[in-house]
Amino acid sequence: MTLSQTYADFATRLTIDAIPExxxxxxxxxxxxxxxxxxxxxxxxxxxxxxxxxxxxxxxxAPVLGHGRGLAMRDAALMNGLVMHGLDYDDTHARxxxxxxxxxxxxxxxxxxxxxxxxxxxLVAYIAAMEVSTRVAAVGxxxxxxxxxxxxxxxxxxxxxxxxxxxxxxDARQIAMAQGIVLSMAGGSLEFLADGAWTKRLHPGWAASSxxxxxxxxxxxxxxxxxxxxxxxxxFALYLRDAALRCSTRRPQASARPGRSRRCRSSRCPPAT
Length: 273
Description:
Elements: H1 3-13, H2 21-41, H3 45-57, E1 62-64, E2 68-71, H4 73-86, H5 101-115, H6 119-140, H7 143-146, H8 151-154, H9 156-167, H10 172-182, H11 202-219, H12 235-240, H13 244-249
Antiparallel strand pairs: 1-2
Helix pairs in contact: 1-10, 2-4, 3-4, 4-5, 4-11, 5-6, 5-9, 5-11, 6-9, 9-10, 9-11, 10-11
């Protein structure tokens, strides 16, 4: 069984009753925190420029923080991820050095809105995405940063694909396929470190938008590679290179502290400018 299949089975079988109450409570806090940081960023120059550009690309009825319903689903996810991450006060998973909520929740929010899903369904999908994004990032042990990649965008796309797939009604086979599809979309360069460019803020929203695209393609029968993580040119081989074998065989361990709501201070994740 490939890792894509393992994660897809996990996402489709997870139920609200199987999730400990302390995890559900923590998830609700992280979602609330992301909404607060997102609303605080509305009106910032980079946020306004992004919203205007998204409007130039088309309109729709998906929810956008601080702007009501004016964008198509993928553009709404992009904008929500951008503002939630833009001030860099969103939660950080220490082992994976990843801001996972700001891709997982924007994906779940617009997918749940599209599907007319219940709040409990949104919460389960969000938790599934968080579980996979943080564990896959943690397996890299900082290696993604070492090669110039930002896990928040790169890895966030994979976890978010599980949330999108679950909420949009995909079965396990289709969700496994969607992860192979998103492999060709995921990314996030650390070149913004050179001069404080705005592009870091795009990464989680792009991950969310890519996840929605991949899940929708898979639902319609589009075929992606089955070994998205451990394949010859999969995630680990492409983005971790010599460390790929070690990471593909390491069993991920959950962090005792799944997230923090203070500004990221890691040397690999400097404050936004």
